[in-house]
TrEMBL record:
Name of the protein in question: Protein kinase domain-containing protein
Organism superkingdom: Eukaryota
Molecular function (Gene Ontology), one example: protein serine/threonine kinase activity
Gene3D superfamilies noted in UniProt: Transferase(Phosphotransferase) domain 1
Database matches in Pfam families: Pkinase
Residues covered by the AGC-kinase C-terminal domain: 136-196
SUPFAM superfamilies for the chain: Protein kinase-like (PK-like)
Protein kinase domain sequence ranges: 1-196
InterPro entries in the cross-refs: AGC-kinase_C (IPR000961), Kinase-like_dom_sf (IPR011009), Prot_kinase_dom (IPR000719)
Key words, A-Z: ATP-binding, Kinase, Nucleotide-binding, Serine/threonine-protein kinase, Transferase
Length: 196
């Protein structure tokens, strides 16, 4: 609702701020060797007004920018071209997903089909994206240390009191911890991940 009521300059400022938050989130994941490989729609504002990536269900551990995986997963409209080509993909796929998310602003560089030339795809990673002209007004250190004023901050200190959803009070459903028989594990040996 806030975004719809803003004028064009305010929308651009908000989009720049929230996109910068996503860039920092992806950068942190990549530094930990994690490919997010999911659409960047499952985001949440924290109580300070900063955007957080909240869905890691499709994330994959990789040790570096050159490591590849072949698993086909995610929402097709957000999947990088290399994910469909059976050549393997790496962290550059996350920058494609970011490009899809903000295509109107950064379309021509984050949506480069060749992963080797995509903005953010090399070892410099997020640093190349951070110096893009779109982010010229972002002070990355200030943002990283939460010293940049967000476009929106909750004014209700106890904002969770206004949230009343009985489903949230229900106990969490968890998969029972059972040992998987070795013959069943063997049937899935060719899959991407095998537990020790």
């Amino acid at each position: 609702m806030l975004f719809l009521s803003q004028n064009q300059d305010q929308k651009k400022t908000s989009l720049r701020f929230y996109t910068a938050c996503i860039v920092l989130g992806l950068e942190a994941l990549h530094k930990m060797g994690i490919i997010h490989r999911s659409k960047l729609e499952k985001l949440m504002l924290d109580q300070g007004g900063y955007l957080k990536i909240i869905d890691f269900g499709l994330s994959k551990d990789r040790s570096g920018y050159t490591d590849r995986t072949n698993a086909m997963c995610g929402t097709k409209t957000y999947m990088a071209p290399e994910m469909f080509m059976d050549i393997g993909y790496g962290m550059a796929a996350d920058w494609w997903a970011l490009g899809i998310s903000i295509y109107a602003m950064l379309m021509y560089e984050l949506l480069e089909k060749d992963p080797d030339y995509r903005l953010g795809s090399g070892e410099a990673g997020a640093e190349v994206i951070k110096v893009h002209p779109f982010f010229r007004d972002i002070d990355w250190e200030q943002l990283l240390h939460r010293k940049t004023k967000p476009p929106y901050v909750f004014n209700n200190q106890d904002h969770l009191e206004s949230f009343n959803n009985p489903e949230c009070q229900a106990p969490a459903l968890t998969t029972p911890a059972v040992k998987v028989p070795s013959e069943l594990q063997e049937a899935f040996r060719e899959f991407d991940h095998m537990p020790d």
